[in-house]
Amino acid sequence: MSRATPPSPAPAAVLANPEMKKTREGFGHGLVALGETNPNVVVLVGDLSGSTNVSFFAERFPERFVQVGIAEQNMMCVAAGLASVGKIPFLATYGAFASCRSADQMRVTVAYTDLPVKIAGAHGGISVGPDGATHQAMEEIAIVRSIPNMRMVVPCDYWETRKATIAMAGDAHPYYLRFGRESVPVVTKEDTPFVIGKANVMREGGDLAIIACGVMVYEALVAAEALASRGIQARVVNLHTLKPLDEDAIATAARECGAIVTAEEHQIYGGLGGAVAEVVVRQHPVPMEFVAVRDRFGRSGKPEELMAAFGIKAPDVLRAADRVLARKKPGA
Amino acid sequence: MPRLQLTVDQLRERALIVRRDIITLLAHAKSGHSGGPLSSADFGTVLFFHEMNLTPGDQKDAGRDLWHFSIGHVTPAIYALMGERGYYPLIDLLGFRSLEGHLQGHPSKHDTPGIDVSAGSLGQGLSVCCGMALGARMDGSSRRVYCVMGDGEQQEGQIWEAAMFAAHYKLDSLCAVIDYNRKQIDGDVQDIMGIAPLADKWRAFGWNVLEADGHDIPALLGAFAQAREAKGRPTVILAHTVMGKGVSFMEDDYRWHGVPPSKEQADKALREMGTTLDAWTERLRHHKEVAVAPSVNGAS
């Protein structure tokens, strides 16, 4: 069994009233920490310094900050050029633009050359809220995972985003970091272990496994708590790294729990659920259910009500758990 | 001697050798682009054998100049120039576009020693060179950055994003060259999607704009020397060229943009250049090791 030391299960009271913090602040603070220790780290932004929080870095290290203006395609390739002469460039824009507008630049110039460009896609997911469908990136996992050499991390909270930002800089490959806009529950601690490519088991259990990333880790924990009150023990796996995938953690969950629910704030096609299923069918087939956005564009609204309307809140995870348990083979 | 600074006569001779290589490697690959590589052979030779400070075999040299062909499809010229400059043995040219060889259809960093950044999707290279120039400036380095673009490529919007960026950041170590051969794969540039007045466009974007006959070696040497003098703004050289230059039946014919010559056509072309396909193939085949210092006295 390969699993990191699990943090003690969050008590129901903590889950009901969690500390709230923005993942993008974790990114901004992570960049500042990097700036202090690594002179090669440079930051580029496409006219979104404030909302991506790279402004923290810009204030501290103006000589290593590059404003590119509204030109994401150029930004992706300027970052590649900087990387080719020894810099570790982080570029920041909204995920909708980072993953789609400059996808060709990411594929050909960054990934094919395998340069250490770190792409920060802010405002990922339906929880972006009022800006509506164009600004709610929900296809990044499908796009980025399919490109060779790319690595991808979708952290679950402030601390994990901060740690992922710092960890990416130490690896000489291209990365995509996806994080959100809103304050979200803090479910890890400053000292919770974080290793790229190694999933964290957030809660132990053997009746089913809920595998999630991003803000859905919290929703999974809430659902697991509700299941526990009914005597059902759900394992919650925080699959923060979408590539490379922790196949051992997935296969172990399938073997030991016999049923899996995946949960993501992303389109259902080509997302975390599909990635997990690829491993499950090959290594240990068990029933699966998928909590994700069902092949539709987002719309304007408040983040919380949108998540409910699009079927990706804890009650949706709970219903998926019931469905998968009904399909679970006796004795599995 | 990182900057070879060959004489005008030596450069002319070297450009002819590069053209012979281009035709020969295309004939063996039975695949690839003919027109653009031939139009860029002269300014390419000036860059590789006079202008640029290059250290083949030592990509980590932080003082060397940087170059990037945004027009990745002119690999026949890039690979011939690199081979002649000592990046790898010339016999490798005979493996162009083959599964066994290291010379991909479009430049690939992890296949070919000496390529800094892979390329092949048009419009991206000037941005890459902006990043190189900016990074060098952050390091306090005086290394120069050379970007080769196509004229048809000017239709890509990203070029103009990069044009704005380079002028905004006053990247005067950056020198771009446009292979202005007036042809693209579907026909004449002016018919496909007009780019004129091109010099005015670049001037309006804040660049130092130079124009030269792209086949006139002394004119090219002068333009590159002038580019070094520019302070506070990047330079673009509009190199007026002829697609397919040097082969009578290819010159100024867009149909040669993306196709290779047959063995017979290649032999005919090489006879126009004073050799034969068999003879030039033999020359490449027998060049199995890179010389420690590249010869500066014409064909080896």
Give descriptors for this structure.
heterodimer; A: 332 residues; alpha/beta; Rossmann fold; 2 domains; seven-stranded mixed β-sheet; five-stranded mixed β-sheet; 14 helices; B: 300 residues; five-stranded parallel β-sheet; two-stranded antiparallel sheet; 11 helices; 7 strands; 39% helix; disordered C terminus
Describe it.
The complex is a heterodimer of chains A (332) and B (300). Chain A has 332 residues and is an alpha/beta fold. Chain A has helices at 12-16, 23-37, 49-52, 55-60, 72-84, 95-101, 103-111, 140-145, 158-169, 216-229, 247-257, 272-283, 303-309, 314-327, and strands spanning 20-22, 41-45, 65-67, 88-94, 118-122, 151-153, 175-178, 183-185, 200-203, 208-212, 234-238, 241-243, 260-267, 288-293. Chain A is built from 14 helices and 14 strands. A 7-stranded mixed β-sheet of chain A has the order 3-2-4-5-7-6-12, sandwiched between helices. The two termini of chain A are 18 Å apart. Chain B is α/β, with parallel strands linked by helices. Chain B has a single domain, classed as Thiamin diphosphate (ThDP)-binding fold, Pyr/PP domains (Rossmann fold), CATH 3.40.50.970. Chain B has 11 helices and 7 strands. The model of chain B is unreliable at 292-300 (pLDDT under 50). Chain A binds chain B through residues 42, 63-64, 66, 68-69, 71, 73-87, 89, 104-105, 107-109, 112-115, and chain B through 62, 66, 108-110, 116-121, 123-125, 127-136, 138-139, 157-158, 161-162, 164-165, 168.
SSE order of chain A:
HEHEHHEHEHHEHEHEEEEHEEHEHEHH
CATH topology of the largest domain in chain A: Rossmann fold
Describe the biggest sheet of chain B?
A: 5 strands, parallel
Fourth-level CATH superfamily of chain B = Thiamin diphosphate (ThDP)-binding fold, Pyr/PP domains
What is the 3D shape of chain B?
globular
Strand/helix succession of chain B: HHHEHHEHEEEHHEHEHH
How are the strands ordered across the major sheet of chain B? 1-2-3-7-6
- What is the percent of helical residues of chain B? 25-40%
Structural class of chain A, by secondary structure, is: alpha/beta
CATH architecture of the largest domain in chain A: 3-Layer(aba) Sandwich
How many beta strands in the DSSP annotation of chain B?
7
How many strands in all of chain A? 14
Count of domain modules of chain B: 1
| CATH architecture verdict of chain B | 3-Layer(aba) Sandwich
Task: Categorize the overall geometry of chain A.
Answer: globular
